[in-house]
Amino acid sequence: MWGVGGYEAIIYHWNGSGWSTFTSGVAQQDVAALNGVWGSESSDVWAVGSGGAILHWDGVAWSTTASPISKDGPELFDVWGSGPNDVWAVGGLGTGTILHR
Predict the structure, then answer these.
(1) Which of 60, 57, 46, 58 is nearest to 90 (CA)?
(2) Contact indicator for 36, 89 with CB cutoff of 8 Å
(3) Tens-place pLDDT, residues 25-84
(4) What distance in Å separates the CA atoms of residue 66 and residue 48, rounded to the nearest whole number?
(5) Nearest-5° Cα angle at 2, 57 to 5
(6) Per residue in 76-96, is it b (16+ CB within 10 Å) or e — as a string?
(7) Which residues, other chains included, contact 74 with Cβ-Cβ below 8 Å and sequence gap of 6+?
(8) Which of 10, 49, 74, 97 has a CA 20 to 30 Å removed from the CA of 18?
(9) Is residue 52 helix, strand or coil?
């Protein structure tokens, strides 16, 4: 199970017996907060946040993924999908941002 929160772009993982933390790999000036996380399997997890940040876990490490939103653009609040090739992110205060992969 994965979790995100706070204003340091920290990602949390529950392994069944305890929580561990991961740094997101995103510079503090590029993303102030991560808001949502979802995964289809242990090697395909997505996290989204402020500045249009989109991160991906490949089972080994987190990496940033190209976002169509500029870092000054709307915030992404949540991510969900039905599988690795059907991932949705939503957000945007007043802009109604919806992204699909």
Answers:
(1) 46
(2) yes
(3) 665 555 668 899 999 998 999 999 888 889 999 999 888 888 888 777 788 999 999 998
(4) 12
(5) 100
(6) bbebebeeeeebbbbbbeeee
(7) 52, 91, 92, 93, 95, 97
(8) 49
(9) helix
Residue pair 57/35 in contact by the 8 Å Cβ criterion: no
| Domain residue limits at 52 | 2-100
68: alpha, beta or left? (left if phi > 0; alpha if psi -120 to 50): alpha
Q: Is 31 helix (H, G, I), strand (E, B) or coil?
A: coil
Structure tokens at 49: 């946040």
pLDDT (0 to 100) of residue 79: 96
For the entire predicted model, the pTM comes to 0.86
Please name which of 69, 29, 37 lies closest in space to residue 53, comparing C-alpha atoms: 69
